[in-house]
Design goal:
Elements lengths: L1 H31 L4 H6 L11 H9 L2 H32 L3 H12 L9 H11 L5 H26 L2 H9 L4 H12 L1 H17 L2 H6 L8 H11 L4 H30 L6
Helix pairs in contact: 1-13, 3-13, 4-5, 4-7, 4-10, 4-12, 7-10, 8-9, 10-13, 12-13
């Protein structure tokens, strides 16, 4: 055991060094958000003398970060929920049905992974303009939900195919219907896959700049990535407020990874031990 630890010591050291280097920009950002601009000008890497939340209050209220934050939360959570829910039902059908029509439909779903969706922004913009969905958060949710389905259904269908069909047969023998079998037996077993899909869809939607820029014209409908561009222009010399705004933007992602890390690792490593 000691020999094994000694042999792996360089790997652990390198991993810790990599972790420190990766986290150092985040730590500098968080620490400087509690300092004043004058303190950062004289000592950029210094520690805060006290926990000053004035920059957070300024970013949250004065810079309209409250509006941008809740818009992003509403759009991201709604999009992930709708996209994952539709993908779960579709993936179960794709994994269990032997009809050719569903195999063709699965191919159509997966073709969404191959198409460059950004090329469709012009007809999408005209469609949204005709439907009155410009600067409408529900329109943005519809776009993100549709874009989530191909990837999510692909991942979830692979997990459903790994589950033995005998589980469903046993449940039906005991009197469980299709819906009860799906929600109470199969869904708990694919939680790692659901966590993987949620994380891999939450992050790009939260950070997406392109679609809100093209489809959101009203400032009250801006999400955080678009709002940050205006925020940087207005507060480019107020470093403390900038760091506070960036910290607020990062907090949901950190919480998501901390909450879903165990399930995410299980989902990413599923089948590796077989």
């Amino acid at each position: 055991m000691r020999r094994f630890s000694i042999l792996n010591a360089p790997k652990h050291v390198l991993l810790w060094i990599y972790a420190l280097v990766s986290l150092s920009p985040l730590m500098i950002m968080v620490l400087n958000s509690f300092r004043t601009t004058q303190q950062m000008a004289t000592d950029p890497l210094g520690l805060p003398e006290s926990l000053n939340f004035g920059s957070y209050q300024k970013a949250w209220i004065t810079a309209s970060f409250e509006t941008y934050f809740f818009n992003s939360m509403f759009v991201t959570i709604s999009s992930v929920f709708i996209g994952t829910s539709v993908s779960l039902l579709a993936a179960y059908v794709f994994a269990r049905s032997k009809r050719r029509v569903f195999a063709i439909l699965e191919g159509l779903f997966l073709s969404g992974l191959l198409l460059p969706v950004f090329l469709a922004i012009l007809p999408l913009f005209y469609l949204f303009d005709a439907l009155g969905l410009i600067s409408n958060l529900w329109g943005l949710i519809a776009v993100y939900s549709a874009l989530s389905i191909p990837f999510s259904s692909f991942i979830l269908a692979a997990f459903f195919r790994q589950l033995p069909i005998e589980l469903e047969e046993a449940a039906r023998i005991d009197g469980a219907g299709y819906f009860r079998t799906f929600f109470f037996i199969l869904l708990p077993l694919v939680r790692p896959a659901i966590a993987t899909v949620v994380v891999f869809r939450f992050v790009p939607i939260w950070n997406d700049f392109f679609y809100p820029l093209m489809l959101m014209r009203d400032r009250a409908a801006y999400t955080l990535p678009v709002g940050l561009t205006r925020f940087f222009g207005e507060y480019q010399t107020d470093w403390a407020t900038l760091f506070a705004g960036l910290t607020i933007t990062t907090i949901p992602l950190v919480i998501l990874f901390l909450v879903a890390s165990k399930q995410l690792v299980s989902g990413l490593t599923a089948g590796m031990s077989k």
